[in-house]
Design a protein that fits this description.
Blueprint lengths: L1 H4 L56 H7 L4 E12 L12 E14 L11 E12 L2 H15 L4 E4 L9 E6 L7 E6 L2 E5 L3 E3 L11 H21 L2
Antiparallel strand pairs: 1-2, 2-3, 3-7, 3-8, 4-5, 5-6, 6-7
């Protein structure tokens, strides 16, 4: 997923003197999450085995993505399995196993713009991976333990859970230059995502590979996607 999200270094064509001359800029809207809900039933005091985890591809609908990015098209999802080993699982053996749809890669096309010519189409993508499903009281301690473990070999950042519509969150990266992975808990679900990445596009008023572009992606688009996930629970 990281490879697909890596931005390519492209020299802006000098003939493109204004953004509007290069194609439609990508609009970002501050949209509210939809009304769809994914049922996650966890009896009090228990851990849900990965075989019973919800489908990560059900967390964000096409309509929610298009509400944030109205020009999004060709939306697709690719599910993947998640294997949780017993020695790292919440609840040990009870929380270990295989979740056949525990991870999902969401992707979508966007109008090509900026200085990109030819048949290159803009695109965006993000992934969602479930880490654990359990009684929130058990999960809160597990989140704290995972955060402490990350601090031994990564840069851990404090993250405002309210921005992401979650009960608690933290971020981690191997270095301060790397795009951080955001880990959140909402109710009985703990999940992570690297946020939303883009290529071959410019936002309204912000060209790709600029601080303004990164600010929109990190502070507007990614939190909106997380809120769509957490509102679904």
């Amino acid at each position: 997923m990281d490879a697909r999200r890596t931005r390519a270094g492209v020299v802006t064509v000098s003939a493109c003197l204004a953004l509007t001359a290069c194609g439609a800029e990508i609009a970002v809207r501050d949209a509210a999450p939809g009304q769809e809900r994914t049922a996650v039933d966890v009896p009090a005091g228990t851990v849900l085995n990965p075989a019973r985890w919800p489908d990560a591809c059900s967390f964000v609908t096409d309509a929610e993505i298009k509400a944030i990015l109205p020009q999004a098209k060709k939306l697709s999802r690719e599910s993947d399995w998640v294997k949780v080993p017993e020695d790292g699982a919440l609840g040990g053996k009870a929380g270990a196993g295989l979740a056949s749809d525990g991870k999902c890669a969401y992707s979508f096309g966007l109008p090509q713009n900026g200085g990109y010519k030819g048949h290159i189409e803009g695109w965006g993508a993000f992934d969602v991976e479930i880490l654990a499903v359990a009684d929130p009281k058990l999960l809160t301690r597990y989140v704290a333990d995972s955060k402490a473990a990350r601090q031994r070999d990564a840069v851990v950042l404090e993250t405002d859970a309210r921005t992401f519509g979650a009960d608690e969150c933290y971020s981690h990266a191997r270095s301060k230059k790397e795009t951080p992975t955001v880990v959140c808990r909402k109710g009985p679900l703990m999940f992570q995502s690297n946020g939303v990445g883009f290529n071959y596009i410019d936002f309204e008023g912000a060209e790709e590979d600029t601080a303004a572009f990164d600010k929109i992606a990190k502070e507007r688009v990614t939190p909106a996607v997380f809120r769509a996930i957490t509102a679904n629970l």
